[in-house]
TrEMBL record:
Stated name of the protein: Glycosyltransferase family 2 protein
Transferase is among the record's keywords: yes
Keyword Transferase: yes
Superkingdom assignment: Bacteria
Length: 313
C-alpha cells in the first residue's frame, strides 16, 4: 500500500499469450492500488488465451481492449493509451507483462514524472536474483550499435543518444501524444529506442530513477542490447532487431549516418546473433535465417529511403 494518490495514473499492458504473468505480476499491484486504472490490450494469440485474459480482466476490474489479431507491441500500446486517456487519466505507466513493480515504486515514478514536468521516467530493472538487467542504454549514432549505460564508450567523435527500455516507462499522456506515440511500423523491438528519440525531439526529457527498481521476470520477454548475452533468443527477436535498426536509421538519421549504418549492418547483425550464444547456431539454422531476413528487409527500407532523398535533391 501507498499513501500516494494514484487516480491520475493508468497502467497500460500489451498482452500476448501471457495471462499467467498478468495474474502473477500485475494483479497484486492493482489490488494494492484500487484507484489505478488498468488497461489490458490483448493481442490475439489463441482462443484459449483470449478467454483466459478476458476472465482475468473481469475478475480484477481491468479495462480490456480486444484487437482482432496481433497488432504488435507499439500499436497495442497506442490503443491502450487512447483508452486510458478516454478515462481521464493524465499519466500512463507502460508495463510489460513480465515486469513486477511495487506500489511504492510506482508512486516514486509518478512523483518523479510530476517533478520533472515534460519527462519520461524509468526505474532500474533487476532480474529476480537482484542483478541488474537494465539501467538505461545508449545508441551509438555512428554505427547503430547499442550498449548499456554502464558500458558507455566516450571519446572524440563518438555520438551517443540515450534511451529507456519499454519494459517500464511512466510519462504524461500529453507528452506521449506530442511525441506521436509509438511508431506502428516497428511491430516489435526498437520501438522504445524510437519513442525515446521522439520524446527528446518533442522537447521532453528522459529520466532514469536510479533509486527506484522493478523486476524483470526472465523467461517472459527477451533481454535487451546484450544484457542477456549467451541466452538463446527467438527468431522474432533476431529478425526485428536487425530489420528495425535500419528502420530507425531511415526515419531519423542524416544521409551520412544512414549509409554508415547500412555498411555496418552485416557486422552488427552478427553481434546481435551472438547475444544468444554460438551453441544455438550449431543446433539450428533458424536464428541465422531470421537475421538474414532482417538484413534483407532492413536494406530494402534503407534503399527506399535513399531513393526518396535522392529524388528530393
Amino acid at each position: 500500500m501507498t499513501d500516494r494518490d494514484m487516480s491520475p495514473l493508468a497502467v497500460v499492458v500489451v498482452n500476448y499469450g501471457s495471462h499467467t504473468l498478468l495474474e502473477a505480476n500485475l494483479a497484486p499491484l492493482s489490488r494494492s492500488c484500487p484507484e489505478l486504472a488498468v488497461v489490458i490490450v490483448d493481442n490475439l494469440s489463441t482462443p484459449g488465451e483470449r478467454i483466459a485474459v478476458t476472465a482475468l480482466a473481469e475478475a480484477e476490474g481491468w479495462y480490456l481492449e480486444l484487437p482482432d489479431d496481433n497488432e504488435g507491441f507499439g500499436t497495442g500500446m497506442n490503443r491502450g493509451v487512447a483508452r486510458a486517456a478516454s478515462l481521464g487519466r493524465t499519466h500512463i505507466l507502460l508495463l510489460n507483462p513480465d515486469a513486477l513493480i511495487a506500489p511504492e515504486a510506482v508512486a516514486a515514478l509518478l512523483a518523479a514524472s510530476e517533478r520533472s514536468g515534460d519527462a519520461m521516467v524509468a526505474p532500474r530493472i533487476l532480474r529476480p536474483d537482484g542483478t541488474l538487467w537494465s539501467a538505461g542504454s545508449d545508441l551509438y549514432l555512428g554505427d547503430g550499435r547499442i550498449r548499456s549505460r554502464r558500458r558507455r564508450v566516450e571519446g572524440p567523435g563518438i555520438r551517443i543518444e540515450p534511451w529507456l527500455s519499454g519494459a517500464c516507462l511512466l510519462l504524461p499522456v500529453e507528452l506521449f501524444r506530442r511525441a506521436g506515440g509509438f511508431d506502428d511500423e516497428y511491430f516489435l523491438y526498437w520501438e522504445d529506442v524510437d519513442l525515446s528519440h521522439r520524446i527528446t525531439a518533442a522537447g521532453g526529457r528522459l529520466v532514469l530513477c536510479d533509486d527506484v527498481s522493478a523486476v524483470h521476470a526472465e523467461g517472459g520477454t527477451q533481454g535487451e542490447g546484450g544484457q542477456s548475452a549467451g541466452q538463446a533468443k527467438s527468431t522474432t527477436y533476431y529478425y526485428h532487431n536487425v530489420r528495425n535498426r535500419m528502420l530507425f536509421a531511415a526515419r531519423h538519421l542524416d544521409l551520412a549516418d544512414l549509409r554508415a549504418w547500412r555498411r555496418n549492418s552485416p557486422r552488427v547483425a552478427w553481434e546481435i546473433l551472438l547475444q544468444g550464444g554460438r551453441r544455438q547456431l550449431v543446433e539450428s539454422r533458424a536464428p541465422l535465417a531470421a537475421a538474414l531476413r532482417g538484413l534483407r528487409d532492413g536494406d530494402r527500407i534503407a534503399r527506399r529511403e535513399l531513393r526518396r532523398r535522392s529524388a528530393r535533391e
